[in-house]
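Dig into what follows:
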Amino acid sequence: LGYPNTSGLKCMDYRITDNICDPIDSTQIYTEELVRLPTCFICVPKPEEMKIPVAVAPPATRNGYITFGTFNNLAKHSNSCQKVWGRVLAEVSNSRFMAKGLAFTQEAARQSWADGFAQNAVDKSATDFNFKSMSKFKGRLLLKPATHSYFDHCRLYDDMDIMLDSWPYSGTVTSVEALLMGVPIVTLHRRGDTAIHANNVTASILKQVGLEDLVASTEDEFVQIAVRLSQDHGRLQELRRTLRPKCIETISAPTAETFGMELEAEYRKMWSRLLDECCQ
């Protein structure tokens, strides 16, 4: 259903998930019993992005600078993640940050969002902070309004080198889109008392496509991974070329059969348990 939490309903017995989204040591409260699939709790059959060609090269090759960004819903951008995104931008000189939202069709909304982002992202205790720092930071923002078509939306990924995931609500559809368009993602994975299913979905997807090294366990590590990836232009070029085939191999076509078999096996266990309970 795309709802990353408990239903809270007594009539709902189980919730399908996996070990990355809901780690064994998670303390998130569910009324349902969690059923963790061995691979991933989602798969992507025949995504529309397959009809849209991937850009030949990441934008840094033509721009001469790295463009970070996120197309996650603006409501997912917490003050905490904006602060960390700001640290990444501070570490990668001359980089840009691209965001997209329906609100950006209005200039007042664009200015308001940019002001809020700058307040969270700019380190006012830095030795080089001055009265121009906020305006300089906002000058590095690329704010895109809603597009007229899905094709135009996906084409915007051509202008993004690296997607920075949000928290405590990460991307799902947006993360799959980015990967299919050849854009790698850096995400934050939470465990134990801080584990939240909504926070960990991108981490689960990245594990499936073999990009576990882009999953951070702390905010400091998130900055380190993003900076290191931005400096590896060869890898960015390789990922632009190989990510879609890797997605097709791991989270799309053949995975649907594996996903179905794993889910059917769990259904049999649920049904068997119900029969045992009824016979008692």
User: Anything to note?
Assistant: The longest strand covers residues 14-18. Residues 176 and 205 are 8 Å apart (CA to CA). The chain has a mean pLDDT of 90. The beta strands are 14-18, 33-37, 67-70, 96-100, 141-144, 162-164, 185-188, 215-216.
